[in-house]
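Quick bug: F-box domain-containing protein output formatted oddly.
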Amino acid sequence: MRLKLFRAESGTTTVWSWDEMNYDVLLKIMKRVPLGDRLCVACLVSKTWLSAVLDSMSPPGVINLKRLDCPKFQRMNDRYLVFLKRRLDTMPVDSCSAFYHGETFLQEYKYRYIAKRTPSMQKLIIPRAVRTNFTFILPAMKYWKKLKKVQCPSVLIAQFRRNFTEVETLRLFGAVDDDIATIIRDRCPQLKRLRLDYCALSINALSTILDGHKDLELLDTRHSFRVPDCRILFSDWMSLCLEWNEEEIRRKAAGVKVHLKCARDRCRKCAPRKCNLPLRSCFPDLKPFKSDYRARL
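Here's what came back:
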């Protein structure tokens, strides 16, 4: 498809291809086009327009599957995944550096397909809504070994400890037992920022982590709680939260630049906790899973 431009002053006609349009201008135009027209019409014009359509839905270099959670978008999920596949097949392998997962699960082979074409992935964000479910992302983790910023269930780091050697920012949710704490201490030498908010921590977990990371830029332990056995997260066993060894933590965290922590018993979010529902304490916004999405890829 070509555009003819007639210049009255010179009497000449210039023929331009739509692909020659300034990409930033094209991107701004796409953001104003209705979603249905973007995925059903605009993306069929050329590869450049297809890239602009996908970039209008998420920043360049970002695979944003949170789009699949939007009710208005669900009718277009098939087309979005089809065009995402087409783009992954044609772009350089280092074009995508961030992956945002939503609450909608794809089949495992689709994650493997995405990961094979994005080996330079540096940012992985998995929402807390997935809770302790991590099996869906296992096929992709085999290819993502250059991660620098990760938010994921705590059990994932135990399965793929070698993938976290370059991680600088880490946010975990779920239960952090002594084994996971040891992995963070020994296998994350580049770690600068650690968030463990709303986590169930074993008796020695935080102390073990601080033994290897005394100079963190940020440590966030707000609303986390200390338990004798992290396995209570998956059972109905009634247990009491243990008191924090504040003096030991304060001594070991003396080199931490910013340590975010709540007022424990005086905290509005922590005070009502009885630990008889430990899973609810780790995931205060707990809600039913969304069903798996079976679109083609």
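Actually, after a second look the formatting is fine. Confidence is low (pLDDT under 50) at residues 293-297. Closing.
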